[in-house]
Amino acid sequence: MSDSGIGLREIKKQLTRESIADAALQLALEKGLDNVTIEEIANLAFVSPRTFSNYFSCKEEAVATAGTQANFEVIEQLAHRPAEEPPLQSIAHVIIAAARERTDEQVALSARKLRLSREHPSLQPFQTAQYDALEAAMRHVVAERTGTDAETDLYPGLVTSVAVAATKHAITTWVFSQTPREHLPELLAEAFEQLGSGLPAPQPGVGPSPGE
Predict the structure, then answer these.
(1) Is the pTM of this model over 0.90?
(2) What residues contact residue 65 under an 8 Å CB cut-off, 6+ apart?
(3) 109-133 pLDDT, tens digit each
């Protein structure tokens, strides 16, 4: 088979995966996770239950995967940041840019998905797995940019783990503080700024929080 044939096949598989995941999240939000069956997800995605099982182990994994295709774009953009730019600054740039570029609908859907995971602890291991996958991909990009080993050197794993933790916490804070959509990039920027300054303890009464 030609390289173009292999590429087309992979694209089709990715599109099928995204379709199933999107269907799973849509139904979970409409009906409640506990009331959704794999058969219903498969029907909405126009695939068979067997095809569903080829992509996901359970409905929770499918729901947690919805919307994560944007992570691939973040990794690609990170790989193309200026070589002289500090890795933490590069990660901050692509994460904040991604938050600004997402549509209001995409951001709202991500917020609903996060709230759903709080309501259903069975989703949380799969949500964590998505963050772990993002962190692993970032770690390899940082290792390549810094001439370090992604598996045996401390630096690439350290910088990416704190970056992903900051991202996750900023998003969670934004969702549950119920501040306007435009404050999400501000919270992300503040999180990375605090990382860059060594996480100094906040001074009571000094400076407003985003959204105030």
Answers:
(1) no
(2) 17, 21, 24, 56, 126, 130
(3) 889 999 999 999 999 999 999 999 9
Q: Which amino acid is at 39?
A: E
| CA terminus-to-terminus distance, the chain | 58
3-state SS track over the chain: CCHHHHHHHHHHHHHHHHHHHHHHHHHHHHHCHHHCCHHHHHHHCCCCHHHHHHHCCCHHHHHHHCCCCHHHHHHHHHHCCCCCCCHHHHHHHHHHHHHHHCCHHHHHHHHHHHHHHHHCHHHHHHHHHHHHHHHHHHHHHHHHHHCCCCCCCHHHHHHHHHHHHHHHHHHHHHHHHCCCCCHHHHHHHHHHHHHHCCCCCCCCCCCCCCCC
pLDDT digits (tens, 9 = 90+) for 159-212: 999 999 999 999 999 998 888 888 899 999 999 999 988 888 887 765 555 544
Indicate if the alpha-carbon torsion angle 37, 28, 166, 141 is positive or negative.
positive
Domains, the chain, ranges and CATH? 3-59 (1.10.10.60), 67-196 (1.10.357.10)
Q: What is the pLDDT of residues 56-108, one digit of tens each?
A: 999 999 999 998 888 889 999 999 999 999 999 999 999 999 999 988 888 88
